[in-house]
Amino acid sequence: MKNRFIALLLSIFIFITGSGIGAAADIIVHNGESIQSAVDNATHGDSIIVEPGTYYENVTLSTYDLVIMSQSGNPDDTIIQGDGFFLTGDAQEITIKGFTLKGTGTSYGVNLAQFSNCLIEKNKIMNYSTGIDTNLYSTFTINDNEISNCQSGVFVGECYYDAVVKNNRISNCGTGVVVGDLGDSKIENNTIRENDQGIALMYEGRSDIAGNTISFNKKCGIYDKADTGSKIYNNYFNNTVNVIFDSYHDNPNTWNTTSTTEKNIIGGPYVAGNYWAKPDGTGFSQTHYDVNGDGIAEETVKLSEGEIDYAALATSENSTPEQPPGATNSTVTPSENVTSPSEEITDNNSTNSDGSSDGSSDGSSDDNSDDSSDNSDDGSDGNSGESSHSSGGSSGGAGGSPEPQTNVQVKELSQAQVINGKTVMFDFTKNATCVVYISFDAKKTAGKITAIAEQLKGKSTLTSALNSGEVYKYFNLWVGNSGFATEKNIENPELCFKVEKSWLQDKKIDQTSVTLNIYNDKKWSQLPVKLLKEDNQYLYFTAQPPTFSFFAIAGKATQKGAVNETQAKSDTENLSNNTGNNTGNATTGVEQTSEQKESKGIPGFEMIYGIIGLTGVYLYRRKR
Question: Which member of 342, 363, 520, 601 has the lowest number of beta carbons within 10 Å of its beta carbon?
Answer without folding.
Answer: 601
